Amino acid sequence: MKLGVSFVTAAMMLAGSAAFAAEKTLDIGVSDALTGGAAVYGLPQANAVKMAADEINAKGGIKVGEDSYKLNVIAYDDQANPTEATNAVRKLIDRDGVKFILGFCCSGATGAVASFIANEDAVMLVGNAAERSITTREIPNLVRTRPPADYTGAAAGTFVAQKGHKKVAVLGALDVGFYASYVDAFEKELNKAGGEIITRESFGLKDRDMTPQLTKIRELNPDAILVVGYVEPAAFIYRQATELGIDVPRYGFTSGSEEQFLRVATSEQMEGVWDLRPTELTLLSASENGKAYHANYTAKYGIAPSPSSPYAYDQTYALKHALEAAGTVEDTAAVAAALRELPVPEEVVMQYLPVGGKMFDVNGQAYTSNGAFQWQGGNWVFVQDLPSDAEAYSKFLSTID
Amino acid sequence: MIEILQQIVNGLAIGGVYVLIALGLTTVFGILGIAHFAHGSVSMFGGYLTFFLVASLGFPLLLAILVALLIGLVLGVLIEWLAYRPVRNASHINAFIVALGLTMMVEGLNLEFFGHEQVVIPTNLSRIFDIGGVTIPELRLYVIMAAALLIVAMTLFVEKTKTGQAIRAVAENRDAAILMGVNVKTIPMIVFSISTALGVCAGVMVGSLFAIAPGIGQWLVVKGFAVLILGGLGSIPGAIVGGLVLGVTEALAAGFISSAYKDVIAFVVMIAVLLLRPQGLMGKS
Amino acid sequence: MTFSAKHLVYGAALIGFALLPQLITVKYYLHLSVLALVWVIAAQGQNLIQGYTGYVSIVQAGFMGIGAYSTTLLGLHYNLPVWLTILLAPVVSALFALCTGYPSLRVKGHYFAIVTLAFNLVIFIVLMNYSELTGGEAGITGIPKPGSKGGWLNFANREVYYYFVLIIAVLMTSLAGLIVRSRIGQALLAIRQNETLVGAIGIAAWKYKLFAFVAAAMYAGLAGALYAHYQSFINPDVFGLAQSLDAILAVIIGGSGTILGPVIGAFVVVFLPEYLRFADSFRLILYGLVLVLATIFMPRGIAGVTSDLWTRLTRRAA
What we know:
Helix content of chain B: over 70%
Shape of chain C: globular
Radius of gyration of chain B: 19 Å
Structural class of chain B: mainly alpha
Distance between the termini of chain B: 37 Å
Helix content of chain C: over 70%
Number of domains of chain B: 1
Strand order of the largest sheet of chain B: 1-2
Keywords (chain B): Amino-acid transport, Cell membrane, Membrane, Transmembrane, Transmembrane helix, Transport
Oligomer: heterotrimer
Strand content of chain B: under 5%
Number of helices of chain C: 14
GO molecular function (chain B): transmembrane transporter activity
Family (chain B): Belongs to the binding-protein-dependent transport system permease family. LivHM subfamily.
Low-confidence stretches of chain C: none
Order of helices and strands of chain C: HHHHHHEHHHHEHHHH
Largest sheet of chain B: 2 strands, antiparallel
Radius of gyration of chain C: 20 Å
Low-confidence stretches of chain B: none
Main location (chain B): membrane
Pfam family, one (chain B): BPD_transp_2
Strand content of chain C: under 5%
Largest sheet of chain C: 2 strands, antiparallel
Structural class of chain C: mainly alpha
């Protein structure tokens, strides 16, 4: 069956039970990094989609017109590599006949797929990939649950400027586009308040010894440091900064869980560190949905979910409601249009800021609130919302081509 | 001045790790003429295993290292016996491909056994020393000292013991060594044992001071080969000098020139050395 | 293999490739075939330096990257037509190869392999960090297809692009065959067998080695350009060390020092991981195991083994 919808008549399977509406299966695809360095982000996303699909199935599936569909998740590993991601999505569309593709943790692989998805009879839902250009081209059949990094960076810059810091030293994975754009937006807001970035130091994905960069920063006597990068190296920066005796406030954009940081640094070394990021999942700040998500995920997979994994969970529910609203599983244009008309579903975990009452704006971009989290006594504690303006940013995003 | 000293101290730890990796690579290369590309992944296996024994089974650290060393040894000898020996007389390209295949297998095993999350071997060493303005954490100091100790032990072994002299003899001239009565059959096994032991130690150092994660092994082995080029393929003093030079160069490059291009700078230094002295810093012309 | 039998194989292969798109029902495999053909070109280049000259170069993907970014950036900034930038791409990669080959070919064996590996890493780091030019990790998207809009050939159609790459792959394979049979090819083979001897009889070996290295880079540059216009998206991840190793594997598995070897090897490298997917997380282990076993038991590659078999069969028949 290469149609994507395999018809399993409930009557045949449950002989005798009076099931009038045909129960069908809808294949949905996941392309994500299931192995390799980026699996830290990709694997939890794939797990989150599967968990959401199981929940939806347990509650009777997706109701489209007279029929109800059970979801079947087909997940392929793209290793966060553009060629592999293209292959994975090609296979989902061409061979498996899948029309709805979720996942997408990483910007390079996502950019490759986004470059051709507009020509396909499919809908693409992007998760954790934060590169801005993914939603600047207004691709009609693409939406993204995670806000672009510079949306958060601007809010972070305002926050740090309000704290009165003038000289900020940056240490980040600046070869990664969205981290650099976070810093650019941060700098713009900082400059407005009369502050400046005094140095931009870089590190690679495999680097775990950042003492050379930190030593240089120590000599420059900054008022504060800003650390942007993946959690694994970032945790080492916080530890090595205290080891080198740097005792200025530390701000960051890393989105790591408590567990991930404590593997590397002690709670004392982390004390007082700020994380300025979208209000993703954390134990203490989580909403009711967030707590349930955390508990269910941990029970199902035996490990705590990564903070960014709900982006994929929320994709699945957004897709469910869009399918039901569009009343079709065949017409992808209608489903894509329904996604852009969708109010924020009640099952989602992240705290989305609707634009014009809708979850996704005209660019297909969703916005969460941004928060300032601080490490206090072994936990990330939500301190306050960051000043973020989803409506304004959405307008700005539409002006970029 | 303090900044330069601090940067040199910064570079010593990773430099020490480079030396240990390079020593393993250079002895294998000297004896067998094989670019043992899987060395980094095998080293990380040792580190992972130590982590597993300490964190999951509650072994004391030193005992865990000992067990990891023994199991690592078995793995190293098996690799020599099953994979490298059959291609001993084939062209070096084939041996290289076998090494690549092995790298994938060991990386795959690591992933299968230990997962994709980075691990750090817990040590509970958190004191920090301040020596005339240069700060150095306790753990980092021990890592540097342990590396120095292993390097000295390795040098003494090669210089002073019978087996060590036999290894050097085979490395310099295989045929002459056979004539002199060296048992060339057992030498590869011994060399692989030593090489893997040093690698496992390096894995433990990386795993406790930094972290082990997928891909770190390959990254280290590339650095190890750069050290070999710097110091001279097959040369033991070359591996020591080359490793320290690379580690300190990286730290100074990151601190004073550009952190984004520190690896590029390190490679440019390597290529420059190669052009001026094609046999490496310590190699014989 | 006899002369005529060889031609029979070439003819059959050509017909097979020409008919392939008609035989493939699932378009996904057509997509993989286009990628495999791109790899055929890259592997033919790799074969010149690795298979014929005996120097393992680990920078083929890096040169592909230079080709891919050249064609893209030349088109983007100077508004040149696509066919022209595709032709310029190998020229740019050749320039880089000249500059890097001259110093690195002074050393042999493993030294050379590791120096070229370092070049690949340097190319990768620069592509990642020089983001004003290359767009960094986010890459460049919307790279145009060849041909004008509304022209008689629609290159956005995968079948059309398949034939486009097929023609170039056939041309480049024939060119490799010509090079190998020429005087230059003889010199390269002699270098592989005994470089000292070649020097001793008064042949400037370095010129021939440099030629092979630059030619390999041009093949890579062309392959990279074709890749860029096919995928319409490039970023540094595609041109890293792992891909250079794939080029080496393609040559070894197919049969190094043969003309058909890289063709077979390129398809194996692209399709094998696909068929190992059933193994799920054990894929990497299995892939490595296949490599090790193939190298130990089949050191002359698939082309070598088949040709041995063929000789044995025909001998028995005679």
